Amino acid sequence: MHPYRSHTCADLSKDNVGEKVRLSGWVHRVRDHGGILFIDLRDHYGITQVLCDPDSAAFADAEKLRSEWCIRIDGEVKARADDLVNNKIPTGEIEVFVRDIEVLGPSKELPLQVFGDQEYPEETRLRYRYLDLRREKMQANMVLRSDVVSSIRKRMWDRNFKEFQTPIITASSPEGARDFLVPSRLHPGKFYALPQAPQQFKQLLMVSGFDKYFQIAPCFRDEDPRADRSPTDFYQLDLEMSFVEQQDVFDTIQPVLTGIFEEFGGGKSVDQEWPQISYKDAALWYGSDKPDLRNPIKMQVVSEHFAGSGFAIFAKLLEQDGTQIRAIPAPTGGSRKFCDRMNAFAQKEGLPGMGYIFWREKTADSVAQELGITVNEAQAKLKAGEVEGGMEAAGPLAKNIGPERTEAIRQQLGLNVGDAAFFLGGKPKAFEGVAGRARNVIGAELGLTDQSRFAFAWIVDFPIYEKDEETGKIDFEHNPFSMPQGGMDALMGDPLEVLGYQYDLACNGYELVSGAIRNHKPEIMFKAFEIAGYGKDEVEKRFGGMVNAFQYGAPPHGGCAAGIDRIVMLLAEEANIREVILFPMNQRAEDLMMNAPSEPQPDQLMELGLRVIPQD
Fold first, then answer.
1. Is residue 605 part of a domain?
2. Residue 436 is part of which domain span?
3. Cis status of the peptide bond prior to 174, with omega within 30 of 0
4. Is the dihedral of CA 229, 259, 277, 498 positive or negative?
């Protein structure tokens, strides 16, 4: 027999009754039932119940066992009584009577329990990640991640993509985030960088004549952490293709991701139609370039209804250039209690508040106030039909702008009795983010967001340039390597009107994919950078390898990258990306388990010709 096991802890069934078996694993929990010890023995594959009674030679050893000791047991498989069968586990029809126990690895007192669903501080979980990973949910998340990556590879191979690995040690290249620099021992004073993405290398592969490339690529960015972003490294499905247009990239990646979400989505429906929404419309309708389309709410511009109105705050605001008033419809949100909650939300977001109107059945109170009579008289008039009932608008805004404007807003937004609308104003870029978050909260609290589906949308037509409001300087707003729509001709006009063949894919409020059709013509690239204030010499210095390559018959090409971590996070229904990464950093980009970053040894610094300057 094998020295450690004849079966895993998920293998045994009634077919094995009477067999002598050997199992190895961890003590999940121990229960003492009238002197008989029941031990749930766990390995990666499952749990088997083993038991030991005082007649067993191993009973004295069994009494010493504690949670998470690693042990080997020998025993005999027996069938459970019908009323003791556990249908929740595959091995629930049998149990193993222990004849011998060997402790392979005892455990100290645990800093966190593996059994159960107790919540522990993230610091504890990350410091003892090897224990945290023993928990059932974490095991499932990591197996899911492995299966997703395996399925992605197969799907890409089936589409005739070739998998290549690009360098990890390379030159520094601005990609929109900070590089991790690596000092060179052989070239003192010079530094390599870890790649933020394989961007330049995958484009060079297209110049090299490879038609379709992909890899599951590690990427390194020194970024501020968020719940959906790692502060140091992450993995992406990176792909590039030659002789393609934007739609070709969409048609390639859509069936891959559709298949992944159908295979691992736990029965949730996967939208088959992926709308293409311009960046401008996404900002207007959803307040975000990664909208959650499970939420049906679309914001609208309602400036005309407030211009010259009795609501002075919005009326004066609209006298300034570039300002708007936008409405967030809230079907079924027509109560003062809900409106007050949303107003409090806006205040937490740093705004003075959020204007609102809600529509309700006309009340005796409002009729009494309107006609200057008592509430009882108003009730009588309503009952007798002497006063027309129906709908009325309520809230401070309704009183300030009057019934005609209020009714025009209601009709534009398509709202009725029991509905509400919330309003934000100013320069769109200043309030779009808050508006988008408010839309998400409204959709969730009112039950409008469909939790049973994955909803995808391509965001297209990204602007290439933006202007700094203070300095007036033109700079890149998005990927500087995207091909401008219209090519060189587009760059001869207003830079702020130039759109790129750049695109993102949003799913349920997260950006899953980002990509572009690349600018493969040196003359267009030089002009694009010139507009942003970068001379030809600087472009050649920063991106010399790629610029030189493009002068030797570069094909039109494009591609994208899909975030593996975020895909798995969505499929696992986790809100934090660290739940699907084996050994993540904490919010301060620290590895508490391995004590990184750490101070280098003096001889290491000397060998590299470096000196650390203390920070005040």
1. no
2. 295-449
3. no
4. positive
Query: How many degrees, rounded to 5, is the angle at CA 374 between CA 369 and CA 380?
Result: 105
* β-strand pairing of 212-220 with 391-394: unpaired
User: Where does a domain end: 51, 78, 105?
Assistant: 105
- Write the CATH number for 21: 2.40.50.140
CATH code of the domain containing 309: 3.30.1360.30
Q: What is the pTM assigned to this prediction?
A: 0.91
> 28-64: per-residue pLDDT in tens?
999 998 889 999 999 999 999 999 999 999 999 999 9
| Secondary structure element (H or E) that encloses residue 127, with its range | helix 122-127
Domain finish residue from 105, 131, 148: 105
The pair of structure tokens assigned to 437 is 């978050």
Number of domains in the chain: 2
- Is the separation of the CB atoms in 463 and 477 below 8 Å? yes
pLDDT, tens digit, for every residue of 409-453?
999 999 999 999 999 999 999 999 999 999 999 999 999 999 999
Q: Which two tokens stand for residue 129?
A: 């990640």
Does some domain include residue 127? no
With beta carbons less than 8 A apart as the criterion, state whether 328 and 297 touch.
yes
What is the C-alpha separation between 332 and 175, in angstroms, rounded? Answer: 44
Q: What letter represents residue 430's amino acid?
A: A
Question: What DSSP character marks residue 190?
Answer: -
Give domain status of residue 431, yes or no.
Answer: yes
Residue labelled with tokens 């996967």: 270
The residues, ordered by sequence, that sit 6+ positions from 304 with a Cβ below 8 Å of its Cβ are: none
